[in-house]
Amino acid sequence: MSEHVDTHLQELRRGTVVLACLQLLRTPGYGYALLEQLEQRGFATDANTLYPLLRRLEKQGFLTSEWNTEDTRPRKFYATSADGLRLADTLCREWTSLSAAIASLPTEPRPSADHPGPSEEH
């Protein structure tokens, strides 16, 4: 695909990754496992995008975190906060509304001037 198409696809996907993280982290998880879950569900994201996003959502109060030091390697576990759950619910409702609005858009080409549409017939 062209560079322009890739840019638009990236913009379209950006907000969906936020919603996907909030939904997946209803069950606490750490970054690498979250990357794998996102990819399995079709939200391909790289670590350079995900970790800053997690920090930003935590700073905004939509995620909480705590370190698990019981394993050999300490891991920071994230979980969706109460505010994050409310945000996820709002984003889901908006996504459903936008999906319906997009589905209502025409997908067929407009009739040309030579071939008037039903409302333009004489």
From TrEMBL:
Task: State the superkingdom.
Answer: Bacteria
Record-linked Pfam families:
PadR
Its keywords, alphabetically, are: DNA-binding
The UniProt entry, under InterPro entries, shows: Metal_resp_DNA-bind_regulator, Tscrpt_reg_PadR_N, WH-like_DNA-bd_sf, WH_DNA-bd_sf
What positions does the domain Transcription regulator PadR N-terminal occupy?
A: 24-85
Bias-annotated ranges (Basic and acidic residues): 111-122
The reply to whether DNA-binding figures as a keyword in the UniProt entry is yes
Instruction: Give the span(s) annotated as Disordered.
Output: 103-122
| Gene3D superfamilies in the record | Winged helix-like DNA-binding domain superfamily/Winged helix DNA-binding domain
* One MF term in the entry's GO annotations: DNA binding
Q: What is this protein called?
A: DNA-binding PadR family transcriptional regulator
